[in-house]
Write a structure and sequence with these properties.
By secondary structure, this protein is mainly α. The chain has two domains: about 130 residues, Up-down Bundle (Four Helix Bundle (Hemerythrin (Met), subunit A)), CATH 1.20.120.660; about 130 residues, de novo design (two linked rop proteins), CATH 1.20.1440. It is about 85% helix and about 0% strand. Helix 5 runs antiparallel to helix 6, helix 6 packs antiparallel against helix 7 and helix 6 packs parallel to helix 9. It is rod-shaped. The protein starts with 6 loop residues before the first helix and ends in a 7-residue tail after the last helix.
Length: about 325
Amino acid sequence: MKIRPGVTDILWMVAGAAVLLVVMLVMLHFHSSQSPADQLAFKARRVDLVEQMRLSLASASEAEKSAVMAITDHDSQTYADQARAAASVVERERTALAQLLNTGGTQREKALLEQFSKAFADFQRIDKELLTLAVENTNLKAYSLAFGPAAAAVTEMNDALSRLADKSASSPEAWTVATLGYGAETAVLRIQTLLAPHIAEESDKKMDELEARMTADDQIVRKDLDTLATHQTLSEDPDFKTATAAYARFSGLRKQILTLSRENTNVRSLEISLDQKRKAMFQCQDALASLQQAVLAEPIAGVNYGPPPNPRQLDGGPRTP
């Protein structure tokens, strides 16, 4: 059974063909009505926009890397704002170029701009996560605590225990005080040396292992201090009280350091910058380079660009025959 199109269907098909014909005629008229000078100017505007996009994209990437590497919250935020602003410029330029291509660009140029648009959307998605991490600076804050107040607390504790041992040198408890004090000092130093590797570590499993070792040494310190406290003459000594207070302060700081270290924002942002962001940047730049070449290769009637000049001729070197 054959289904014949009705009158309405035929009218719609004729109308569609007419619209298509009109569009083609308008495009042909557009190109034919432009002088070579107009066509050159139109090409120059497109090439210039693509070049501006490449420069703005490079500025955004450079600012992002500065945000990742900055050592203060203020600098990180400043560079992150610059990266976002440069990316916004790229988007404005992309929109302007799309409008130009819609008025007279080739299908290949439009396809290449679409390719860039997809790559740039990925670029922006990665940037959103990366810059949010970069400005938090949790690893840098952890380092600052570890090598600042935490280190000072360890020094204060160990100095107090050393003074306590010196004062007890002639007493019957000298050996006990020296042994327990040295044991506590050694254990707290081991904890301190594990903080920096923990802050730099990427793996949660290795962080767990480092924290397990810290916990074991923490138990040693507490056991030695508790044993010293059983001697009444020692428990009332100002140096012993200083040592226990310093270790309590160190323990609180250690907890803060490990929490910041676990967030790992600096390590994660650097990893994203060197991997995902780098790949996205290359994809964007490759798409723009191809688009620029496509625009430059678009022929203009009556215009012959000729072969590229010989660089040796430009600098006064010998000319080829």
